[in-house]
C-alpha cells in the first residue's frame, strides 16, 4: 500500500480564527487560557479535515501562534537575555521576541525577521552565543501528538532539524567575533535526544524532521554535522523521515542518502529533475522515499496523471512499500479551502486547489497507486483529467498586443537618459529637499474606519462617490499630519489600498481574486495573494488620481507609490504555463505606463517597491544569473521611461541583501530605502564593502513592532550610518510602511525621526 502524507497545514484557521484570537490577546480582550482554547479548536478542525479527506500521515506540531521557528527557540530555551527578568509570562516573552513590547515598564525591541527561504513567509531569527544554555522548556511535538491522539487521530510529529535550526540562526551581539552557531551542535543534541526519546516513549512511530537547508549550497559545509547529529539521534528516536523542500538536493544527496534515517522526502514540484538521481542514491538502502508531487507553494490543481507518472517511476524502482505520496512542502503557503470562495466563476474555481483540496489530491494519487477499486477514486481522477484539459485549452489564449509589446522591448528602454550625478542636480533644484531629507515608505495606518468604509463599499452600503470622498478626507488628514510634524518628502498614505499587491492586481487585466484565500506572511499578518491567470495589461491609470489629489493639497513634494513588477509577481500566485520572465515583463510595461502618467500629472518622485527582489532569487547560486537577467531589467523597464527630473525610489526589506547588493546598485534608482534597524544595522558592512553612489535610506526604526523608538536611538542609528555613508546621500526613513501600526505609535515614532534628522543637520552641517 502506498501511503499519503501532508507535511504541514495552514495554521491560521479557515476564517482567520488564530489572527483574531492572538490580536484579541494582545489587546487584553482574551485570556491566555482562551487563546489556548482558540488554538486547540483550529488544530482539531485541521486534523479532522485531513482525516476526512483520506490522508494517511497527518502532521502535528506544525501549528504556531506566531512562527514555528520562534516556537522552537522558546522550546529549546534560545531566549535572548533582554527578554528575561521582566516579570513576563512565558507566553508574553514569546510574543515580545516576535513583535517587541513597550508597556508596563517593559521596553524591548523585536527579534530580527527574515524571509523563509524563497517564500513570503517570515521567520524570527534565533540568536546564539557561547552563553546559550539549551534545555527543553516544553515538548510541543509531544503535546500536539497527544492532543490529536485524544481526538482519535494518530499523527506524525513535525520537528525542525538541529542543523537547520543552527544554520538559520545568527550570532548574538554578545557572541565573540567569528562565532558560528553550528559550533553549538554538541550542546544542542542532548536536548533533541530528550525530545525524540519522549516521543518514542509515547508510542510515536515516526517523526518528520525538517532539514530544508539541504537544498542550499551552504549545506555542503555541514556534512560532518549532519553525520554527527543523526548518528546520535537515530538510536533513541522513532523512525525519522528526513524532510527537504523548496529545491533540489544536488551534491548534498551524496551524504543525505547515507544518514541513518528511515525515510527521505524530496520536492518534485520545485525540482522534478532530481528524481532519477535520488532513486539511484536510495535504491541500495532501505530508505522510504516520500515524493512531493502536490505543490505546497501554488494554488493550481495538480495534474494527477503527470504526478502518477513520477510516483510510478519510483515505485517501479523501489517497490510500492518504499514510496509515500506527499505534498511538496507544508501547505502553510496556500489558503485553507476553496469551499468558502463563491465569487469565482465555476470555470475559474475549477482551475484551483487550496490546502484541503490538495490533501484530497494526495490521497487520490496514493489510492490509485495502491490499486484502489473505489469508484469515487476513479471519478476523482477523471474529473481531474477533464479540469486539466479545460485549463490547458484556456491557456492557449493570449493577448497579441501584450505579447507583441514584450517582444518589442529594446535595451534603451532600460536606461535613464542621464547618469545619477546629472539627475541628482536636476532633481534637487525641483524638489528643494534639505540635507538628510525625511520621508516614509508609503503607507500610513489602515484604521478600523478605513476598513469599514471599504467593506461598506463592497457591500454597496455606500456609493462610489461617498467612498471616494471618504478617501480624499483620509488623504488630506495624512498630508496635514506630515506637514505638521515636518516631514520633507510626503506620501498620500494609501488609504484606498487593501494590500500593496492585491490593489494593483485588481486594477490590471489578467488577475482573479478570492474572498477568503488568506496566507500567513508573519505573525498575525495575513495576505490574500492575487492569482495571475492570463496576459497582464493596464486598462487605465491606477494611482494617478490619488497621488495628484494629494499633491494638490500641499506645496511640499509628493511621492507616488507603486509596487514593483518583481514583487507583484512573487507575491501573487503566478501562472504555471508561461515563464515568470514573461509575466514579469508584462507587469513592468504596465507599471512603466503608470510611472510616466504620474510624472505627467505633476508628481516629482515615484517609489517602485521591490521588497521581494531578493526573496525571488533561486536557492542555488548556479541559478541566480538566469533570474537576475530578467528581474533587474523588469524593474528598469518600469522606471526608465521618465525624464531626469523625476526622482525614482525603491524599497527592500527582510532578506539578506549582501550577496546581491551589486544587483541593487545596478537598478539605478535615485534613492533606495532598505530595512536595517531590525538587523542591527549589519547592512552597514555591506555598504562598506560595495559602496553606494546613489541616495540611500537605511531604516532607522522597526515598524513591525508597536514599540516607539526614542529620539536618542534614532540619533545613534544616524550617527552609525554616517560612519559609512556620505552625508549628502543619506535619507532618513523608517524600515517599512506603516499600514499595520496604530496612529499613536506612528505619530510618536515619526516625531522622534524628524527631530533626530534636525539634530543631524545641525551636528553634521
TrEMBL record:
Name the InterPro entries for this protein: Cbl-indep_Met_Synth_N, Cobalamin-indep_Met_synthase, Met_Synth_C/arc, UROD/MetE-like_sf
Q: Name the residues that bind 5-methyltetrahydropteroyltri-L-glutamate.
A: 19, 120, 571
One Pfam family this sequence matches: Meth_synt_1
What GO biological process terms are annotated to this protein in UniProt? L-methionine biosynthetic process; methylation
What are the Cobalamin-independent methionine synthase MetE C-terminal/archaeal domain coordinates in residue numbering?
436-758
Q: Active-site residues?
A: 704
Question: Which parts of the sequence bind Zn(2+)?
Answer: 651, 653, 675, 736
Cofactor, how bound (note) = Binds 2 Zn(2+) ions per subunit.
Function as written in the Swiss-Prot or TrEMBL entry: Catalyzes the transfer of a methyl group from 5-methyltetrahydrofolate to homocysteine resulting in methionine formation.
Q: What is this protein called?
A: 5-methyltetrahydropteroyltriglutamate--homocysteine S-methyltransferase
Which species? Lentinus brumalis
Amino acid at each position: 500500500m502506498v501511503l499519503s502524507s501532508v507535511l504541514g497545514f495552514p495554521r491560521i484557521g479557515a476564517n482567520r480564527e488564530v489572527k483574531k484570537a492572538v490580536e484579541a490577546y494582545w489587546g487584553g480582550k482574551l485570556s491566555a487560557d482562551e487563546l489556548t482554547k482558540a488554538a486547540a479548536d483550529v488544530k482539531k478542525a485541521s486534523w479532522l479535515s485531513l482525516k476526512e479527506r483520506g490522508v494517511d500521515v497527518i502532521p502535528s506540531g506544525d501549528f504556531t501562534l506566531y512562527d514555528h521557528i520562534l516556537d522552537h527557540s522558546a522550546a529549546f530555551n534560545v531566549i535572548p537575555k533582554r527578554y528575561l527578568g521582566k516579570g513576563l509570562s512565558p507566553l508574553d516573552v514569546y510574543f515580545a521576541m516576535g513583535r517587541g513590547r513597550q508597556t508596563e515598564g517593559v521596553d524591548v525591541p523585536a527579534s530580527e525577521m527574515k524571509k523563509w527561504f524563497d517564500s513570503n513567509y517570515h521567520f524570527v531569527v534565533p540568536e546564539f552565543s557561547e552563553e546559550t544554555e539549551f534545555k527543553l522548556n516544553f515538548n510541543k511535538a509531544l503535546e500536539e501528538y497527544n492532543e490529536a491522539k485524544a481526538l482519535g487521530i494518530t499523527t506524525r510529529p513535525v520537528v525542525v532539524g538541529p542543523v537547520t535550526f543552527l544554520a538559520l540562526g545568527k550570532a548574538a551581539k554578545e557572541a565573540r567575533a567569528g562565532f558560528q552557531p553550528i559550533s553549538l551542535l554538541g550542546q544542542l543534541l542532548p536536548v533533541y535526544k530528550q525530545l525524540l526519546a519522549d516521543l518514542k516513549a509515547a508510542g510515536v512511530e515516526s517523526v518528520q524532521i525538517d532539514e530544508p537547508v539541504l537544498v542550499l549550497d551552504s549545506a555542503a559545509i555541514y556534512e560532518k554535522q549532519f553525520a554527527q547529529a543523526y548518528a546520535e539521534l537515530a538510536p533513541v528516536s522513532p523512525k525519522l523521515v528526513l524532510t527537504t523542500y523548496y529545491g533540489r538536493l544536488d551534491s548534498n544527496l551524496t551524504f543525505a542518502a547515507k544518514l541513518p534515517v528511515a525515510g527521505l522526502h524530496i520536492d518534485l514540484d520545485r525540482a522534478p529533475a532530481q528524481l532519477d538521481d535520488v532513486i539511484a542514491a536510495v535504491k541500495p538502502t532501505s530508505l522510504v522515499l516520500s515524493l512531493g508531487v502536490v505543490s505546497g507553494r501554488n494554488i493550481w490543481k495538480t495534474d494527477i496523471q503527470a504526478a502518477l507518472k513520477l510516483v510510478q517511476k519510483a515505485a517501479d524502482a523501489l517497490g510500492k512499500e518504499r514510496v509515500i505520496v506527499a505534498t511538496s512542502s507544508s501547505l502553510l503557503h496556500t489558503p485553507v479551502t476553496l469551499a468558502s470562495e463563491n465569487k469565482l466563476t465555476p470555470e475559474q474555481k475549477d482551475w484551483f486547489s487550496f490546502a484541503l483540496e490538495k490533501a484530497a489530491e494526495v490521497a487520490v494519487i496514493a489510492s490509485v497507486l495502491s490499486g484502489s477499486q473505489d469508484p469515487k477514486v476513479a471519478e476523482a481522477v477523471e474529473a481531474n483529467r477533464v479540469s486539466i484539459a479545460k485549463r490547458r485549452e484556456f491557456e492557449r489564449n493570449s493577448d497579441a498586443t501584450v505579447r507583441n509589446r514584450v517582444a518589442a522591448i529594446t535595451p534603451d528602454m532600460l536606461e535613464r537618459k542621464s547618469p545619477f550625478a546629472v539627475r541628482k542636480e536636476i532633481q534637487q533644484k525641483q524638489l528643494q529637499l534639505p540635507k538628510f531629507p525625511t520621508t516614509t515608505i508609503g503607507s500610513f495606518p489602515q484604521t478600523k474606519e478605513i476598513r469599514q468604509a471599504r467593506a461598506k463599499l463592497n457591500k454597496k452600503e455606500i456609493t462610489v462617490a461617498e467612498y471616494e470622498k471618504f478617501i480624499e478626507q483620509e488623504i488630506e488628514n495624512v498630508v496635514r499630519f506630515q506637514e505638521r510634524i515636518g516631514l520633507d518628502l510626503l506620501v498620500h498614505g494609501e488609504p484606498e489600498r487593501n494590500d500593496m499587491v492585491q490593489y494593483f492586481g485588481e486594477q490590471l487585466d489578467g488577475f482573479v481574486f478570492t474572498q477568503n484565500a488568506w496566507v500567513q506572511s508573519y505573525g498575525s499578518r495575513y495576505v490574500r495573494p492575487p492569482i495571475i491567470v492570463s496576459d497582464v495589461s493596464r486598462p487605465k491609470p491606477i494611482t494617478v488620481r490619488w497621488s495628484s489629489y494629494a499633491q494638490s493639497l500641499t506645496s511640499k513634494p509628493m511621492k507616488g507609490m507603486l509596487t514593483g513588477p518583481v514583487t507583484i509577481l512573487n507575491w501573487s500566485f503566478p501562472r504555471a504555463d508561461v515563464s515568470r520572465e514573461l509575466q514579469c515583463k508584462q507587469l513592468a510595461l504596465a507599471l512603466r505606463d503608470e510611472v510616466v502618467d504620474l510624472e505627467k500629472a505633476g508628481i516629482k518622485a515615484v517609489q517602485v517597491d521591490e521588497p521581494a527582489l531578493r526573496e525571488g532569487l533561486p536557492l542555488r547560486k548556479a541559478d541566480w544569473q538566469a533570474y537576475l537577467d530578467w528581474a533587474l531589467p523588469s524593474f528598469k523597464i518600469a522606471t526608465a521611461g521618465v525624464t531626469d527630473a523625476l526622482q525614482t525610489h525603491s524599497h527592500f526589506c527582510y532578506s539578506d541583501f549582501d550577496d546581491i547588493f551589486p544587483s541593487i546598485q545596478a537598478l539605478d534608482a535615485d534613492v533606495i530605502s532598505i530595512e536595517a534597524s531590525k538587523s542591527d544595522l549589519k547592512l552597514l558592512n555591506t555598504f562598506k564593502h560595495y559602496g553606494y553612489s546613489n541616495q540611500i535610506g537605511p531604516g532607522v526604526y522597526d515598524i513591525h513592532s508597536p514599540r516607539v523608538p526614542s529620539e536618542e536611538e534614532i540619533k545613534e542609528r544616524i550617527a552609525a550610518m554616517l560612519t559609512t555613508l556620505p552625508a549628502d546621500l543619506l535619507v532618513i526613513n523608517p524600515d517599512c510602511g506603516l499600514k499595520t501600526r496604530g496612529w499613536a505609535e506612528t505619530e510618536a515614532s515619526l516625531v522622534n525621526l524628524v527631530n533626530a534628522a534636525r539634530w543631524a543637520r545641525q551636528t553634521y552641517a
